[in-house]
TrEMBL record:
Residues 1-10 have a biased composition (Polar residues). The lineage of its organism: Eukaryota, Fungi, Dikarya, Ascomycota, Pezizomycotina. This is Porphobilinogen deaminase. Its cofactor is dipyrromethane. GO terms for cellular component: cytoplasm. Pathway: Porphyrin-containing compound metabolism; protoporphyrin-IX biosynthesis; coproporphyrinogen-III from 5-aminolevulinate: step 2/4. PANTHER family: PORPHOBILINOGEN DEAMINASE (PTHR11557). Residues 30-250 form the Porphobilinogen deaminase N-terminal domain. InterPro entries: HemC (IPR000860), Porphobilin_deaminase_cofac_BS (IPR022419), Porphobilin_deaminase_N (IPR022417), Porphobilinogen_deaminase_C (IPR022418), Porphobilinogen_deaminase_C_sf (IPR036803). Keywords: Heme biosynthesis, Porphyrin biosynthesis, Transferase. Pfam families: Porphobil_deam, Porphobil_deamC. It comes from the Eukaryota. NCBIfam families: hemC.
Length: 393
């Protein structure tokens, strides 16, 4: 992000108070909401810093709120996120506060945001994406002999609560076992490191570890070409939720959003929205901008380094170049890993509408290849499991 001195303040179309008159500093602070975890608070500070660089004369205040999903550590995630609860579990309180004006924006991991937001709330911007990949973190007991999924001892137990992660790995590594591991990133690492830990390794998002300054725990980066794993829709990107009618805050956020990340992530979310029937869909994606004038393949957001304080070390948010195309890969896998459907599509994406159309077309391509049958079966199994848990079956 631009530093405070070098940032170019474009003339906003609405009046964003930002001049260095004494009046502007008297405006109430912009209230930034976030969850209470260390990672959530680092992410909120990152957004605050980017806003400060663009609008140095405004004041900001971070409100870290304990979410329902953080309080309940017992109920299995799959169950907590069923039906009615799906939308409010992590963000319900924060959204209520935003609607009441007690907050002006909420910083979210885009991955955790439902594809449909409550009425009168909207995504104000999507910030430059961190590394979107999943990673393998091997137990310290094994790191000297195991550097990858392929070299883990047969029968090893991998900690992950994500059916997307487990299903993709079952497909390629049928001898591995999987078990739930819950809690924030620090808790999961502690469970892996414990003397009596049942886990040989866990799977985490690179983005969270890097933002926490714990990138040194990464044993293997996973991708289609390494380990055969595609990431979750929106993984690695931060999204800012706002009141739809708050023109001032939206205008401010336009300064810190990323065109590249926004188009790639909105394509991913349009795909998910097209496929889901009320339940979360275990789908892996990989999006990448390729070609154009630079002529080199780059990630969605070229590798950006974060310091231990979570601040971006290097500025990196170039516009999309002429001729650059979005490569969009997907996989849908049955829970047991025995059935799978994959697609790859490459297209010029010159607007958000283009991006969303591409996402919908990718969904069609997946359905044509039979992904709907895999998803239908998963939804049936989930509903059955939920009924059983509630004692109605
Ligand atoms: N499901 C929890 C969650 N939500 C976002 C991240 C990581 C950061 C990100 O994707 O932006 C994580 C942790 C993880 O999956 O390892």
């Amino acid at each position: 992000m631009a530093s405070a001195t070098s940032s170019t303040l474009k003339t906003p179309s609405v009046s964003v108070p930002q001049t260095s008159t004494s009046a502007s500093t008297n405006f109430p602070p912009i209230k930034i909401g976030t969850r209470r975890s260390t990672l959530a608070q680092i992410q909120a500070r990152l957004v605050e810093k980017n806003l400060k660089d663009a609008y140095p004369d405004r004041k900001y205040a971070i409100h870290a709120i304990l979410a329902q999903g953080d309080k309940d550590k017992v109920t299995p995630l799959q169950q907590l996120s069923m039906g009615e609860n799906a939308k409010s579990l992590w963000t319900g309180e924060l959204e209520d506060m935003l609607l009441k004006g007690e907050l002006d924006m909420i910083v979210h991991c885009l991955k955790d945001m439902p594809t449909q937001l409550p009425p009168s709330l909207a995504i104000g911007c999507i910030c430059p994406r961190e590394d979107p990949r999943d990673v393998l973190v091997v137990s310290p007991r094994l790191t000297s002999i195991c550097k990858s999924l392929a070299t883990l001892p047969e029968g090893s137990t991998i900690g992950t609560s994500s059916i997307r992660r487990a299903a993709q790995l079952r497909r390629l590594y049928p001898t591995l076992k999987f078990a739930d591991v819950r809690g924030n990133v620090g808790t999961r690492l502690a469970k892996l490191d414990a003397e009596d830990s049942p886990f040989a390794a866990i799977i985490l998002a690179a983005a969270g570890l890097k933002r926490l300054g714990m990138g040194d725990r990464i044993t293997q980066y996973l991708s289609k070409d390494s380990g055969g794993m595609l990431y979750a829709v929106g993984q690695g990107a931060l999204a800012i939720e706002v009141r739809e009618d708050d023109a001032v805050v939206k205008e401010m956020l336009a300064e810190i959003g990323s065109e590249r990340t926004t188009r790639a992530c909105l394509a991913e979310r349009a795909l998910l929205r097209s496929l889901e029937g009320g339940c979360s869909v275990p789908i892996g994606v990989e999006t990448e901008w390729k070609g154009g004038k630079r002529g080199v393949a780059t990630g969605v957001e070229p590798a950006k380094e974060y310091g231990k304080d979570g601040k971006a070390i290097e500025e990196q948010d170039e516009e999309i170049k002429d001729g650059e195309e979005l490569v969009f890969r997907t996989i849908v896998v049955s829970v047991d890993g025995t059935e799978s459907v994959e697609t790859e599509m490459t297209r010029m994406v010159t607007s958000i509408a283009d991006a969303e159309a591409m996402g919908r077309d990718v969904a069609k391509a997946l359905v044509e290849k039979g992904a709907d049958k895999i998803l239908e079966k998963i939804n049936q199994e989930k509903q059955w499991a939920a009924k059983k848990a509630l004692g109605t079956n």
